């Protein structure tokens, strides 16, 4: 079993009894340490070759304890070190081959002056259009419609941020309740305004000459984003409590 720093097979009873787990059970186990993880995220990591659960004859995923440990390691490396998925995959593959694989370093020390310099800027996970369609389980026409409403936006090179999988999955789920993409434009507009507020707060850090301070800006932005999401959820619950007592 893959041994991971800062944790291991001790998290969650479901991960230690050796029985195959459904993706829903894996989600429950992982959320003990990673509250923001989603089923879409797990599916995306699978599509990127970072975990390979076995499939039942009917096509359902079944994860073993080693799959869960591998997912934990991937999520920790993304959360704590901002490593690209390609680097994470190479690191884990080396570990499973029994090679001595040190954690890839993103910084080096400049000789003589003790200043840390980035070796390589962390790159956000990106996926292609076909990968997005497959991971979210949607059709081309649906994606095109959602793009027309600005709910999903491709990057300049035509690829997508990995979070687009989560957005697409949620839009599809809301559609089951009769909520159409055009209804979601107000949510997109609100998200853009909230992102602008976060950007205003972290902008001074991002312009700082010290690279460590600039790196801290990303962590601060993620923390602020998490707080705004929690506030939004609480305000929604309050509003619904007033309107639907």
TrEMBL record:
Pfam families: MerR_1. Keywords: DNA-binding. Residues 36-94 form the HTH merR-type domain. InterPro entries: DNA-bd_dom_put_sf, MerR-type_HTH_dom, MerR_fam. SUPFAM superfamilies: Putative DNA-binding domain. It comes from the Bacteria. This is MerR family transcriptional regulator.
